[in-house]
């Protein structure tokens, strides 16, 4: 059972204030403007699979920690792409987690998981080798009940709007079904996000084939650069029809570049022909960020930038299990020089809105807070990945607020594919914000009534406004 | 009204100790060895203009935050350089500030402003849309009174010495008047600082014209490199006559370079002829830092280095409103390699003294504390800009002290053009130092009596010594 | 006298929990898997020299701080290499320390020294100019007593195993004597560490001569690259015979590189011939890290990587006093790209174990915790140098734990040549860990019983396991 003072400062004055502030945020609906939940889950509304496939197999926070202590992902059921065998027995996988639960002490995975077990599934005991089977059985029983189907949980979780993330090549069938059921479409409860990385990165294997597929899907001629842009515009329109209010861009760097149409066309042709150098590819990605900004001026999609992740760093893991299984590592990221070309062109255009994320927290004070606190187009996104933890969230407020204030930040983003953990993640953020604001109040830096208004803004009103979700409810 | 426990730790034991320590610093005179107050203000001693022109128009902390939320600087009265219209009604500007006061929650601007309203002007109510006009009227009434003239406030603020900052091209008339009135000159209450950036940066538009003006002003032949150096020496002597004890250098990087006289002369000629490349310009700036260090060995001026600010990052702002209006952004800054040429030459010379500032706080533990804690010539300047805030000041002590101790730091530097906020800024620093020292005492890491001596040293004795202000009183 | 609550959080709830947790770690034996104690000290077991030579002369934390405030190392008895005179009177040196003791306020040197004076030597008064002579006399008297000989202190300190660090050129006579006395050898109380930097860095003056000496020592032909590798293997075997369980590598960068045997041989020949460029030298060092990793797969030595120190930054100090006297400065260090070649080759090999240290604490969250939390071969070493302090240790746990957990860290490493300070350093680490864990408990993030198990693991069980010291006792 999670204590009611979970994550609040221990010092009694601040704890008391934090409890009071948290009351103002606790029951507000959840706004989830960016994440990776599979929309099929909510479209089909089928029961979840077994506990291992819910809690372990798809969660790379969990599998990477176990791998770091010598438990290969294959033993955790992570699907292989090289045909090698992987564990399929959910109970065996679950036992491995339970036996090694001490590895997660001090990590957010532990907090989230225990909150889900307790708050969502009503379990009260500890997780360890001795309880593994009982917990597995109890979870399995709950998952078979109708109240634990995805849509029922969505309602129970008090989620107001949830954005999933799709490639432009996704035909959005799940979102169409959601719309047909009254759950999706513009202003709906479940919306999509336009994520074109795999169409603008010539270094990504299979790029030309995907571009060709874009042509088929849109019926437009992608053999020319203007045709390629039109095809992307066409997919943006389709995504907006499926409720999208934002796009998402996960390049290695935050580099932006303004090429002339002619130069861009040359680069595009070169890349399509397979002749792009690494520098060409970086230039093309950088230029495309500016093109997407220009499209945003017209269609209003909020841009999200997620740079700084060295993808597939763990080569052995990548060869055996492919992408997005815990092999990515952050690296130092520059924004101040990288974004200047884009900002020079559109940084003060009132139509542009960009939410900046980072995996390199040194930039909070040095670059992102000064940028977001100076440019009307820029907002500082919530701590992302590796940093979406109690200490990470606390340091974010401590390092960003004095220069950016609260109102140039975007509110919490759970960024998760673990649907059941969404309330736990938002609750952690609300509690940490309560604790931070409580310190400001206790140190006589902010009156209590203003802190109370602020925490409600951070938890609810601000993300709705920043991500242009006012129509959603 | 500001609470007497403002900014002290909430935990009662530490708060009690912090209060006790603060008592030892609270009433010590203010030493302001580096800032941007206009000396004409104190030379002429005329009443301040209206509240908007005092609190909003010249304060880029304030205007950039409002701009970041879509209020253009023109609406805040920031002068334009392109002839475009700007708001001139002080009351209208003030209302914009008051209506948007919530944007400043958690920022130092809020703390400083409320302390000034309360402690300097005696206001007791909150600032918001409803109170905007009353506050404006009350401030206006106060500003008309003789006790609110600059010199009266200077005395009331208990400022012992205030250094302004001037270009070598400044003829120092204001300082001459101050000296004539018994306020300026060597050992005086108001002194100047030698800031030659615009004469050593060939990339700065109009450089050659300014060099020519230097020749006129000094009557020396600046057509040759030795003549240029002599002209700078001549201006340093004039600045020292106007009380200067330090120079200030605000390059983009901390790069230093030792060129031979012959090579420097070649570079100088090339730059004067307009043919300097970007690399030439950087080499010239880097070399000139070493030349200034050599001049310091002779004339005793303390060097201040302020690297790391990407000037005029916001192009639209720069085009419309020019320099120093909130468009600068910090960037990652290396010191350990950049300073080595200078330190190899003079780093252990007992005559040299350099105070190092940074906008990149990652260097406090990694570079600046190890450098200042190893070289007799180096001191670690107070957190600067963006970091001159409660959290920034606290992190500075937490990250620098263990390697540099307290006595390789320079004491607080307000670095402000906002004259009325000087006591508030120093008070914030003293309170944060009290809180930091209180933690050391409460954790049995430092006895109370030593902490009391330390806080008085940090607040008063140390900056006097480091900036060679012992003669000033 | 050090208070029993030394370094614990001031807030009463957390302090109470920290006290309780500390109880579980306080009396556990000390594991010192990496340091620079001279093995001759323990082999010969002669009395320590005078207090100045024990506390000041060899401790560059102390001499650099005094140097930074204008007291030249020569006045502190630091041996010169240029024949210049240095102070030889221990009492005079000691007085300089005592008179300037205030410079150390807030530094770990102060904490360690006062703990040693109090806990090891039983002194109870303060250190200052007035007490300098009395303290000196008392220390001198103690040092003459048999209970203050090195081996007696080793036993009193409850050290279970201490690793010293030697060059492959060291003939390990001291370790042989220790083994003969029942103190050394495999599984012994005092063991060695294989530190080959001076044999793999062609930039280090005298490299070729040292390689030749390696040939003599091993009787192997180091004229060829395979012979060079064999000679290193031979020395590793000798070190393992002297108890070594790990190697240590202190390159400027963490760069790794896989060359073919042929390419490596070309580079080796070029370097031996004196024709290696800076890039060649870096390539050779980077390649040799991979060679050492390959050797580790076979012989089981744990690799320690200590990159990021700019050696001999202070040129004047280096010219007069040589290496390792406080002239090194940290610099920004990349691991994520630098280590990739090595990790691609062997990062998931269960036989490989690498402990990563850093002087650049920005990498804890951004690079080292994600790497250690993902690769089975990687562990995160304790904060090193400049960061092995209360605040540094606390920030390490705050920034590394959420991604790496506790069990991908290696436990505390004192890394010291100051033998008498070993218990003080470990005690500081245990107290800081107790305080960090107490916060987790007080904020309901970890139950007390798990925190108690964790602190014992961190203090004792984990370093034994990570450094493969299970046989030692």
TrEMBL record, chains A, B, C:
Domain of life per record? Bacteria
* GO MF term set: glucuronate isomerase activity
Q: Which reaction does it catalyse?
A: aldehydo-D-galacturonate = keto-D-tagaturonate; D-glucuronate = D-fructuronate
Keyword terms, alphabetized: Isomerase
The EC code for this enzyme is 5.3.1.12
Query: Per the UniProt entry, what is one GO biological process?
Result: D-glucuronate catabolic process
Keyword field contains Isomerase? yes
Pathway(s) it belongs to: Carbohydrate metabolism; pentose and glucuronate interconversion
- Name the protein family: Belongs to the metallo-dependent hydrolases superfamily. Uronate isomerase family.
**The protein's name in its UniProt record:** Uronate isomerase
Organism this protein belongs to: Actinoplanes campanulatus
